[in-house]
Structure to design on (238 residues):
């Protein structure tokens, strides 16, 4: 396996008496697609939130690309979120009064400065070139999720974290989103995807299962992104 971009050491998170994560040791290789599965309440979203800097552990350590994230001051943690991770949620969290293009440009603005040409290219890459000026309410669920993916990728994050990214989609839109993930994986992006869908889980290089905050199973799906062939597109995700 290539070098690790994510490493956790005895990672724990408690909420009062509830132990959401219980000493999780995990390594994710650069360019790997990891799926995280498990029953409701097993700690999947808690783990993803900590990896993305949205929550802090109550014990253990998290290293991302050589940085110990658990020791960062609040200001540095905010910079980590902006510059290192791209987040895709089941609930889209789009600003309702901004167009698709403006929602993507907003993410650029918080990172550095907005670039309309780059934002337009990102939306074109997910097949939304004719929906740039539409508000979220004028977009289907699948289209809104594709805006979220473009927004997550616009600042060229090192890791893409997705929490049930197809959970609210019908079968046709789910396949569109999964094709985008396949393309990103084939281009070398690191993906960590929480899912309850075994079919989605099997698309990853590796699958871990959480129960009661612990990793109870880890298995390889036998994929190698270097063997994948994906169609050429006008815009390559960087």
């Amino acid at each position: 396996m290539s070098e690790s971009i994510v490493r956790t050491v005895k990672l724990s998170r408690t909420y009062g008496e509830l132990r959401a994560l219980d000493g999780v040791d995990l390594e994710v290789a650069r360019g790997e697609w990891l799926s995280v599965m498990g029953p409701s309440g097993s700690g999947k979203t808690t783990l993803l939130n900590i990896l993305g800097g949205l929550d802090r552990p109550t014990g253990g350590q998290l290293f991302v690309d050589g940085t110990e994230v658990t020791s960062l001051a609040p200001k540095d943690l905010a910079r980590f979120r902006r510059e290192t991770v791209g987040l895709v949620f089941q609930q889209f969290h789009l600003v309702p009064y901004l167009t698709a293009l403006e929602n993507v440009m907003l993410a650029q603005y918080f990172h550095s400065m907005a670039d309309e040409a780059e934002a337009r290219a990102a939306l074109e890459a997910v097949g939304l070139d004719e929906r740039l000026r539409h508000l979220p309410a004028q977009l289907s669920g699948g289209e809104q999720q594709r805006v979220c993916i473009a927004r997550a990728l616009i600042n060229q994050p090192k890791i893409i974290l997705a929490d049930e990214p197809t959970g609210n989609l019908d079968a046709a839109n789910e396949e569109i989103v999964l094709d985008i993930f396949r393309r990103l994986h084939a281009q070398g992006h690191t993906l960590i995807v929480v899912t309850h869908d075994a079919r989605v889980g099997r698309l990853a290089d590796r699958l871990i299962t959480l129960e009661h905050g612990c990793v109870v199973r880890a298995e390889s799906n036998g994929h190698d992104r270097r063997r994948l062939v994906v169609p050429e597109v006008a815009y390559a995700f960087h």
The mean pLDDT is 88.
